[in-house]
């Protein structure tokens, strides 16, 4: 289509003027190939956006460029010279600045001290604070970044922290900046400011590469888009020539065709599986009177940007927030004690999938079999003694039904790929036979294949009469997977999208407050 | 319809899908370090058999067992605490407290079984305090048990005024009497407790839950487990074990003393780590721990027979720990999981 294909992109290598260049770079973890011979460049004065599905290898790519991890094959060239970085520090010394998603900084030191950390101006070992502040302020002015140098780092907002981090790299003469999903945690105003700064840097000849998950910003703020799919660079297109449709097609590949037609199994003849009335919670983010219903067999999506409070609803259903006020009914009945703990939620036949499987969902040090039985130990035991045969048979059934690829049931869960771990987590919750299933980010960080499978399982579960509430920040998932989509913003539901009106564009517009 | 029909006819005994039983597999996964310790133990046995006079005699092995009974019993509780993600330094206070409490009780005419029971309750009481502070107040187990170590140890000195309390009736030292063929009742108790502990950890909901909270506390909480209660329970078990170990050592010495077992916390932690556990929790086991206990006891015994001074034994113990843990780390690194 309109874009430049990979082979064309490779031809450009010959120009050899790239600031940073990857040549057939690969990275694998165990048997899992995360990046497969990726060749790409960042030219001086160019802003490159890298997009791709969850698990396509975007973050790995950024980490390779920044020296956080080392490639297993291929070559990285910086200004035409092959380089090998052992740490981000090496990369920074060479001139590559990396802004990770999780920023590391000294919260108790001032902004100026943070910017110049490691190179504080000093005289006979005594730091000159005036000099420090002047140097930092000069740099800030030079690069058009506004931030108060005297403030304590810990008091800054995420957007400001990022700018400080960028300044920090620039003060060390970085000529290429790599940013891993910089706008994921930013407000719209902060994002615009960030891109204004990045645009200014590109004009001064810096090369900028950022990873994005938002189509709108890619089109507004980039010269070129590189698309990763399953660890391969599948397209590298000039942004002016590309269309959103083309990029989405490249991102999804085969998967784009699947799951476009979903048949709703929702039934309104029975009591709703889940009914929430006027949920309120103070705080930031909070809930300002959220009411919703999920019919038996229905998949309801709850979409919102970070800070919208959508995740609070799922957590509340999962019993994680004692302080939510309001009513909840499961199949028409109020739970005997309101859902004040995860245990209470489980007893009320509520399944809950947390957003971060490694931290909140799985015990990685236990075998797959033990994780599959984690929620149903009482039904796998008699008078407190586990019945290993029943546990094993049950685990076998789940691994087979969910197509979980393992060497044996005794394999440690830590050894599985993200997709298989996610399946284990979902299966372990389904084993408790919930009638309501609240899922947070059900396919975060899994490969495209597992994502399609998980979506199919979720539809299967709905077909059996379970009511599902899917809370996601993945707008595509929110639209494709669900029967009905609720959009949240500032702790309230601002839109209900069904049928024709349920589009990614409308969902995003409502979530960002740009639609009436 | 056809899809769900197919699902319901999955043959769970499908030969192409054979899982390895959990227990055997787990042993393989976490047992790398314990296996290394086992190999090392064999080498140590061969070395002392050649070098140490009288080492290779039945009476000497009975002696080694008697020597390790006390630390062994402490280590069972310690293993449970470490597997669940905590650990218990206070055993070095609870153990002498148990020993002097037992001596005091039997000297006041309390019958032996009741005295043992009361002593275990005292140990469990220390555990309740630990458990409450760690689980409910959320204070780090290192700091918590360091505090209760001081308190329990201090109490032991308070009861005795710093002097040893000999048994008025030597018959109170039941656990130091031979059960059969010079093997003490204390050793029998150790074996019974070790077997029971192993079975509980492997085959019960409680045991599985301990591995789960040790591996990931937050995930266990979200899975609906009563994490606080489970956390508190391990300190109660550990306290009970330590107090009972105090009874055993009093039985062996025919006296209660506030100065016994001062190194039992570090020795028991060493044994548990040698047995394949991680200080971060979630892995480990009692059979490996018992191997660690035996290894430490054998080295001490062999070096004593070779008339090596005790401070060299201390150095040897430290080296064994570092070598064994380093070996385990190396193995898991080579296996690509480090």
* Strands ordered across the widest β-sheet of chain B: 1-4
Which CATH first-tier class of the largest domain in chain A would you pick? Alpha Beta
Main sheet record of chain A: 6 strands, mixed
Structural class of chain B: mainly alpha
How many independent structural domains of chain B? 1
CATH topology of chain B: ABC transporter involved in vitamin B12 uptake, BtuC
Number of helices of chain B: 13
Gross morphology of chain A is: globular
Name the structural class of chain A. alpha/beta
Explain this structure.
The complex is a heterodimer of chains A (516) and B (338). By secondary structure, chain A is of the alpha/beta class. Chain A folds into four domains: 6-95 and 176-254, Rossmann fold; 107-174; 258-349 and 434-516, Rossmann fold (3-Layer(aba) Sandwich); 362-432, no CATH class. Helix content of chain A is 32%, strand content 24%. Chain A is built from 18 helices and 23 strands. In chain A, β9, α7 and β10 form a beta-alpha-beta unit. In chain A, α15 runs parallel beside α16 (448-463). Chain A is globular, with a radius of gyration of 25 Å. The two termini of chain A are 35 Å apart. Mean pLDDT of chain A is 85; it is low at 1-15. Chain B has a single domain (30-331), classed as Orthogonal Bundle (ABC transporter involved in vitamin B12 uptake, BtuC). In chain B, α3 (58-83) runs parallel beside α7 and α3 packs across α12 (286-305). With 338 residues, chain B is mainly alpha-helical. The model of chain B is unreliable at 1-30 (pLDDT under 50). Chain B is built from 13 helices and four strands. Chains A and B meet through α11, α12, β19 and α14 of A and α1, α2, α8 and α9 of B.
Tags for this model:
heterodimer, A: 516 residues, alpha/beta, Rossmann fold, 4 domains, six-stranded mixed sheet, 23 strands, disordered N terminus, B: mainly alpha, ABC transporter involved in vitamin B12 uptake, BtuC, two-stranded antiparallel ribbon, 13 helices
């Amino acid at each position: 289509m309109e874009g430049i294909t990979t082979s064309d992109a490779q031809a450009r290598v010959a120009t050899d003027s790239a600031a940073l260049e990857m040549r057939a770079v690969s990275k694998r973890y165990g048997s899992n190939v995360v990046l497969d011979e990726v060749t790409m460049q960042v030219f001086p004065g160019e802003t490159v956006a890298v997009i791709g599905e969850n698990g396509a290898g975007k973050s790995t790519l950024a980490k390779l460029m920044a020296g956080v991890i080392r490639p297993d094959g291929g070559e990285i060239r910086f200004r035409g010279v092959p380089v090998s970085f052992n740490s981000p520090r090496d990369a920074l010394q060479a001139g590559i600045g990396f802004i990770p998603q999780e920023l590391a900084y000294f919260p108790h030191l001032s902004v100026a001290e943070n910017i110049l950390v490691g190179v504080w101006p000093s005289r006979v070992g005594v730091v000159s604070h005036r000099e420090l502040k002047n140097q930092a302020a000069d740099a800030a002015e030079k690069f058009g970044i506004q931030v108060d140098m005297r403030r304590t780092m810990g008091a800054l907002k995420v957007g400001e922290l990022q700018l400080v981090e960028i300044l920090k790299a620039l003060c060390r003469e970085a000529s290429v900046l790599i940013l891993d999903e910089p706008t994921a945690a930013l407000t719209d105003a902060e994002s615009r400011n960030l891109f204004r700064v990045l645009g200014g840097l590109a004009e001064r000849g810096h090369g900028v590469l950022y990873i994005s998950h938002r189509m709108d910003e890619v089109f507004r703020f980039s010269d070129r888009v590189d698309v990763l799919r399953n660890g391969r660079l599948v397209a590298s297109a000039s942004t002016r020539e590309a269309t959103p449709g083309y990029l989405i097609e490249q991102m999804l590949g085969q998967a784009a065709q699947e799951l476009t037609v979903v048949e709703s199994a929702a039934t309104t003849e029975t009591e709703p599986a889940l009914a929430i009335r006027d949920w309120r919670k103070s705080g930031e983010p909070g809930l300002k009177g959220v009411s919703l219903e999920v019919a038996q067999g229905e998949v309801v999506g709850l979409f919102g940007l970070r800070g919208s409070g959508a995740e609070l609803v799922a957590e509340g259903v999962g019993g994680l927030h004692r302080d939510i006020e309001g009513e909840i009914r499961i199949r028409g009945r109020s739970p005997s004690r309101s859902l004040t703990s995860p245990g209470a939620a489980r007893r009320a036949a509520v399944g809950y999938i947390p957003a971060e499987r490694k931290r909140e969902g799985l015990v990685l040090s236990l075998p797959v079999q033990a994780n599959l039985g984690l929620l149903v130990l009482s039904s796998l035991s008699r008078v407190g003694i586990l019945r290993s045969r029943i546990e094993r048979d049950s685990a076998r059934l789940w691994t087979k039904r969910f197509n979980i690829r393992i060497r044996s049931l005794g394999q440690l869960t830590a050894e599985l790929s993200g997709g298989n771990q996610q399946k284990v987590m979902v299966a372990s919750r389904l084993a408790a036979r919930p009638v309501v299933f609240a899922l947070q980010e059900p396919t975060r960080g899994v490969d495209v294949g597992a994502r399609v499978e998980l979506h199919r399982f979720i539809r299967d579960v709905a077909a059996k009469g379970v009511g599902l509430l899917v809370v996601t920040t993945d707008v595509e998932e929110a639209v494709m997977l669900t029967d009905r989509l609720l959009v949240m913003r500032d702790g309230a539901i601002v839109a209900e999208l069904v049928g024709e009106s349920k589009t990614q564009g409308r969902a995003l517009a409502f979530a960002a407050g740009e639609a009436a | 319809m056809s899809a769900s029909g197919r699902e319901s006819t999955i043959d769970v005994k499908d030969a192409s899908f054979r899982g390895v039983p959990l227990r055997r597999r787990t042993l393989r996964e976490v047992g790398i370090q314990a296996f290394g310790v086992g190999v090392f133990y064999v080498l140590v046995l061969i070395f002392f058999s050649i070098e140490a006079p009288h080492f290779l005699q039945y009476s000497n092995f009975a002696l080694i067992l008697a020597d390790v009974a006390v630390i062994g019993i402490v280590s069972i509780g310690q293993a449970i605490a470490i597997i669940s993600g905590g650990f218990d330094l206070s055993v070095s206070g609870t153990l002498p407290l148990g020993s002097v409490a037992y001596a005091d009780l039997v000297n006041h005419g309390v019958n032996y079984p009741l005295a043992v029971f009361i002593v275990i309750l005292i140990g469990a009481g220390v555990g309740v305090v630990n458990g409450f502070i760690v689980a409910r107040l959320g204070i780090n187990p290192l700091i918590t048990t360091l505090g209760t170590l001081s308190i329990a140890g201090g109490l032991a000195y308070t009861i005795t005024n710093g002097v040893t309390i000999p048994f008025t009736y030597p018959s109170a030292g039941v656990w130091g009497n031979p059960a059969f063929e010079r093997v003490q009742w204390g050793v029998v108790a150790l074996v019974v407790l070790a077997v029971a502990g192993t079975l509980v950890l492997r085959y019960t909901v409680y045991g599985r839950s301990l591995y789960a909270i040790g591996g990931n506390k937050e995930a266990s909480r979200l899975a609906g487990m009563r994490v606080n209660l489970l956390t508190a329970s391990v300190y109660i078990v550990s306290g009970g074990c330590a107090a009972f170990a105090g009874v055993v050592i009093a039985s062996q010495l025919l006296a209660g003393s506030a100065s016994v077992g001062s190194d039992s916390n570090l020795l028991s932690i060493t044994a548990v780590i040698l047995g394949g556990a991680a200080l971060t929790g979630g892995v480990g086991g009692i059979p490996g721990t018992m191997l660690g206990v035996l290894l430490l006891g054998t080295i001490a015994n062999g070096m004593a027979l070779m008339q090596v001074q005790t401070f060299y034994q201390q150095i040897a113990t430290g080296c064994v720990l570092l070598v064994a843990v380093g070996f385990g780390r190396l193995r898991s690194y080579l296996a690509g999981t480090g």
